[in-house]
What does this fold into?
Amino acid sequence: VGCAMACTFCLTGDMGLVRQLKPSEIANQPFQVGRTLPEGTRITNLVLMGMGEPLHNLKSVVTALEIALDEDALNFSHRKITVSTVGMVHKLDAIADALPVNLAISLNATTDEQRDKVMPINRRFNIEALLEKCRTVKLPPGKRITFEYVMMGGFNDSMDDARRLAKLMRGIKAKVNLIPYNTNPQRGIVRPTDERVKQFQDYLVRR
It folds into this structure.
């Protein structure tokens, strides 16, 4: 409930951390949503993202996902579960060792100066430390790390950013998820133009 990470582009961060969820509360969410779906349809993918930092509640998250993976419980495939993190470097090995799920890193910047402004976690674990851990963390065969990149107009969407991002990804089994920011009146952040998003995407695809 809430989040302690205080990323400036995220409204959940404004709440601060109210409390951590119990394993039962996490595992029960797909069950409850599934009950509302039309007959014959089911939830196929789970992503832990955006409403709290999963690795800040690691023990409960691992227990809940063990339930999600159990064929006698929720019976999800490990290929269909993704855990997203702001980059708690000291816990990446633990989640990778505990579960064969997909990992996603919320990166959102190409320099420490940028990332410090929007993600306070970067002052503890900077980009170099984060990416070095991503190069050494033991992934299950065939898996790669997704890097989430929220594009904010005039902040991290320049072609220089695209060039730096491509270089940062070298040596990592990675894919990049570009997420254009939805302009919010409560934030001094704007959405990049569609043209700039396409240019940025095209540059990365070519590399």
In short: Strands lie at 46-48, 81-85, 102-106, 145-151, 174-180. The longest strand covers residues 145-151. The radius of gyration is 17 Å. Residues 12 and 110 are 23 Å apart (CA to CA).
